[in-house]
Records
---
Amino acid sequence: MQRLQKVIAQAGIASRRKAEQLIMEGKVQVNGKTITRLGTQVSANDQVTVNGVPVDKEKPVYYLFYKPTGVITSVKDDRNRTTVIDFFKHVPERIFPVGRLDYDTSGALLMTNDGELANRLMHPSFAFDKTYIATVHPIPTHDQLRRLAAGIHLDDGLTAQARVQLLASDKEKGTASVQLVIHEGRNRQIRRMFSALHLHVRKLKRERYGFLGLSGLHPGESRALKPHEIKTLMHEIRHS
């Protein structure tokens, strides 16, 4: 048995808070009966609808995907470009990406059908570290690295503090490899941070998503999360 609002949230229809609001507004039915009481328990055999639309209660699944460059982080694309879902045609559940990676950015991406988990991970208040490796030109100065760590003023506000490390530099090519660890998820944030300092990103990869790394995976490959990894994810979002 599970609480009704949790079933709705896990189906990806709404966050748990929004699901509670839908219940109180009389928009949720269980076996044809309108439910307005929070905390109502339902089983896998109960038929749940929201605004008359059935809620599918799939078993939650979780995958770590090594997104290649040139792939859209979306369930579908109106220009028929390759999307991350094209790599999961073998998965019967209706999964979706948690957050996004730009078209020209590769790296770690979480895929799931657990809407509640996705909503929590993507919420601005949830500080989940994301580790990026950027190849930039020219080689950043010590002051530029310091400014990246302290926060950059972008058109949508000051970025949060980051952990920044110069990994390597090539003086002949004038390029450097820089690691950044951030917990925000603004649109094209890393590229915009470097651009604000007149540094051009030639290559960008998300090396880690929280504690989940890409070890053993090649671009385009994925793996199911292990039970202890799922447990850790759940623990982190519940104590955030």
Note: The chain has a mean pLDDT of 93.
---
Amino acid sequence: MSAVKLEDARRVIGAAEKKAKEIGQPMNIAVADEGGNIVAHVRMDNAWIGSIDISMKKAYTSRAFDIETKDLATHSQSGGQFFGIHASNDGKIMIFAGGIPLKRDGKVVGAIGVSGGSGDQDHAVAMAGAAAY
């Protein structure tokens, strides 16, 4: 079975929280399953409430397109092959760094989405979480 379980999501979130604490930036951390549905979300103390929605949408986006959101951002600039993609899927697409697919046996089975810091911080925290999967 390749589904992202709650136990998996908690492990991923725990590793991401640890990284967020190390860099001193409170984050919103969301984990989605294969269908892009949220399995778990954590808003660390003092993390921006506006980033709750963004973290969940980053997880959805990363799973929906099986791509790191920072890479999608690169291709969605004016003139890029995915320009305008953020307007698709009823506004659920986030093209900021911080979303990373979770893979098992080379197959994308879910994603993590992190929001609350700079793009580099969000990506670093998401990478730490994804590595724990």
Note: The chain has a mean pLDDT of 96.
---
Amino acid sequence: MTDVTSAEIGSRSVPLSEAGVGDYWALLKPRVMSLVVFTGFAGLWVAPGHLHPVLAAVAILCIAVGAGASGAINMWYDRDIDAVMNRTLGRPLPAGRMQPNEALAFGVVLAAGSVILMGLAVNIPAGLLLAGTIGFYVFIYTMWLKRRTPQNIVIGGAAGAFPPMVGWTAVTGDIGWPSVVLFALIFFWTPPHFWALALFRSGDYQKAGVPMLPVVAGPRETKKQMLIYTIVLWPIAVAPYFMGIAGLVYLALAAVLSACFTAFAVMVWFDRTDKWPKRMFGFSILYLFLLFAVLILDSVHGRFIG
């Protein structure tokens, strides 16, 4: 009879992980995280009051880690559909470089650590809001909405809209109306941004059984909804000026960028190829980045020059 040690049994039942540092970094969805951190910083920067630079850095770190944790848990849960979609085949889990339990443990530890650190080092309301943001993305969007309704990205988009509110609360200790406007800006920006991607990736979503709007309602209805959302964005985009957290430079740029965003949606409406959806997707990222960048710069001008 062959003598088999418990270590050998363990190694047979649980394959050794091939994951490297790059795979753990990929789990954090760094491109998504960078936009989350940027908008979170904007909320922190324009908020009234003062937060010690060290605590401000801690708050931004917690927002970044919380966003990364959400991405890791999302990849753990979605590993089955990621293995079907061309866009996500190379991720660590569907590629077989990492075990599911590793990704889940990594995400849970980061999520808990970011919330606890935010609550203890900055303030409890910011910690609770960060916890709600992570929970919304994981349980409401990823586990409930994404595979059940074509409105998944509309409702679930709230998770990506919370960071400026978290940044604001880190400074003030409460949720102010200007932070709600920044939340609304990202919330209403998300559907046309993501549906532009879904239009030229609809085959992937159809294979994976994800009921994105282009798959369920068709391209025409999706394009109509995208156009409507870009128009709804107009008053929301210029609202920071009227709420006193941005100046005339921001107001002018917000009006011009919003007009361009709508123009892209019009071009998508008439386009029968993937050309304009791809262009609109790229512009949508630039749109949000420039709005928040000018919001920050406008605030800098107001603090140190105005």
Note: Residues 1-14 have pLDDT under 50 and may be disordered.
---
Amino acid sequence: MALTRRTSRAPTFSREEGVREAYAAHGGELYRFALRGLGDVGLAQDAVQETFLRAWRARERYDPQVAALRTWLFGIARNVVVDLHRARGARPWLRSLADHETLAESPEVGPDAWEALVHRWLVEEALRRLGQDHRVALEQTYLLDRSYDEVAAELGIPASTLRSRVFYGLKALRVVMEEMEVSP
């Protein structure tokens, strides 16, 4: 049974196998989300562990008719990341223990910016799932706001080909986002 799809039956989170399946399906995505928000490998690992612990404790409250397991886990993970971020702010000495290179690369993110961070992460994750031609076309034209002519010349393809790649890339991106159960 795929745990990322809404079904009439709730995943059996009460079984150890169900937790393993959920972790295998979503653990990596949750880790990348936490790492991006916290900028610390150890805290990101703690966040994933805490997410599954909270999910285990609240398993009776999970309703697959309301949200997919992935969506529910990301909601819990968001709260865990915010809690860890606030705790780190309350204990500034913890920042001195973190990897300074990772901290330098990660911007300060307040709780109000989490929604934007989640959306940006979801788009990046969806783009990773596209073919390279479509991904490059979308990244160069939409994300980097470059002209079709400039990008087409750089790629050595006609502008009309680039436009087709963007068109079909957007369609594929929409399908991927639906598969990820992300609504616009």
Note: The first helix runs from residue 16 to 38.
